[in-house]
Amino acid sequence: MPRRGHPNFPLVGFRLRKSPQSYMLDSRFDEIMKVELNLYASLARFVPRTGPLEVGEDTTILGLLRRLDVPLDKVKIIFLNGIHASGNETLREGDRVGVFPPVAGG
Question: Which CATH homologous superfamily contains domain 15-100?
Answer without folding.
Answer: Beta-grasp domain (3.10.20.30)
